[in-house]
Amino acid sequence: MNKVQGFDNFNKYYLKEFEYFDGEAYIPFNIVGINFDKKTINVAVTNRGKISVIEYDLI
User: Fold this and answer.
1) Which end of the chain is more exposed for a tag (fewer CB within 10 A), N or C?
2) What share of the chain is helix, strand, coil (3-state, %, to 5)?
3) How many CA atoms lie within 13 A of 40 on its CB side?
4) How far is CA 37 from the centre of its chain?
């Protein structure tokens, strides 16, 4: 597994499954990448049977 520079705990969270409850159902997602230059995070989201890789801003 590759180490991500600047985020020592990334390997702890890489591809680990998390869940978000949107009021109707639990939406599972996995962290698949972090870009510190662009300050973004890529997550694989499984929303009601559809899998999407989405890029979000790091706040």
Assistant:
1) C
2) 5, 55, 40
3) 7
4) 17
Task: Tell me if 43 sits within 8 A of 25, measured CB to CB.
Answer: no
What distance in Å separates the CA atoms of residue 1 and residue 13, rounded to the nearest whole number?
12
SS3 58: coil
Locate 51 and state its tokens: 């899998």
**Distance from C-alpha of 52 to C-alpha of 47, rounded to nearest angstrom:** 8
Main-chain phi, psi angles of 31, to 5 degrees: -80, 125
The pLDDT, as a whole number, for residue 16 is: 83
Using the structure block, give the residue that is written with the tokens 């972090």.
34
